[in-house]
Specification:
This protein is α/β, with parallel strands linked by helices. The protein has helices at 13-23, 50-54, 75-78, 88-97; strands at 5-10, 27-34, 39-45, 60-66, 80-85, 111-115, 121-126.
């Protein structure tokens, strides 16, 4: 058995692609447009996973966009997706610079949470050891839920 992908439904494909690719930095590996089923699937991968994802291997994130309008609920009970970064502070600053709210700041130099436009929680983890505790992160309050 091997892990293939995680699927999340998105309401606005363009807004979601902006968040996942431009802001988070994931790369589109393939796209499937299904007119009969009236949906689009977009597969994304992180840089370090890109070569295996392009070979139709794992791991990938699958965005499912249903062409007919539907409200999705339950993003919170999904749990979260987790990605590891080289510098959690620099990455969180990059997210903030792009208008993303840091719901749970990396106060201890290790872990932060943000949400996608569709309310999917993302855990951003520091690669390796925790970074030294630093401001403004150490005193930044939580915002909303994650």
């Amino acid at each position: 058995m091997r892990y293939l992908h995680t699927m999340v439904r998105v309401k606005d494909l363009e807004a979601s692609l902006h968040f996942y690719t431009t802001v988070l930095g994931l790369k589109e590996t393939r796209r499937i447009e299904n007119e009969k089923g009236r949906f689009t699937l977009v597969f994304l991968a992180a840089d370090e996973d890109l070569s295996s994802a392009q070979a139709s291997a794992a791991p990938c994130l699958e965005l499912t966009y249903n062409w007919d309008s539907e409200d999705y609920t339950g993003g919170r009970n999904f749990g979260h997706l987790a990605y590891e970064v080289d510098d959690v502070y620099a990455y969180c600053q990059h997210l903030m610079d792009n208008g993303i709210t840091i719901n749970r700041p990396p106060r201890e130099g290790r872990m932060a949470f943000v949400k996608s436009p569709d309310g999917i929680s993302f855990e951003i983890l520091q690669k390796g050891e925790n970074l030294p505790v630093a401001e403004p992160w150490a005193s930044m309050p939580n915002t909303g839920s994650w």
